[in-house]
Design brief:
mainly beta; 137 residues
Length: 137
């Protein structure tokens, strides 16, 4: 994991022929910024993250909403949430934030936590033999 000043954190894993890079922003979200041919060892991950940003449409807010790897209906994102918790008949509102981002060998792990109720979700990506990418929650 690399800490880049003012841009958040990045985690990267490499296989024989592929690389996967995840960026964590200062608001506690994480997003896949690259999955493709192997990157150079000294690739500028901050520049890579910037290249993934789409231009803003004239009717969008100044900071367009991003779904990230664990989407939730908040901050302007209007899609379906990845996690829906219920207590009885009522829906429990969540605010999952990245609390850990780690890359070791060919495995990348992102841990999300919700404060109340206390819930933890771990998303793992791994490059297996033959450069097969596997993910599980």
């Amino acid at each position: 994991m690399t800490r880049m000043e003012g841009t958040g954190e990045y985690a990267r894993i490499d296989g024989e022929a592929i690389s996967l890079v995840v960026a964590c922003d200062d608001a506690g979200g994480a997003d896949l910024i690259y999955c493709g041919p192997t990157l150079e060892a000294d690739a500028d991950l901050a520049a890579l993250a910037k290249s993934q940003r789409y231009s803003r449409h004239e009717n969008q807010p100044d900071i367009p909403p991003r779904a990230g790897l664990l989407p939730e209906r908040k901050y302007g994102y209007a899609g379906h949430s990845a996690v829906a918790l219920r207590l009885g008949a009522g829906r429990v509102h969540t605010d999952f934030r990245v609390t850990a981002l780690a890359a070791k060998g060919r495995r990348l792990t992102i841990t999300y936590e919700n404060a109340e109720p206390a819930v933890r979700v771990t998303l793992t990506w791994e490059i297996a033999s033959g450069d097969v990418l596997a993910s599980h929650v």
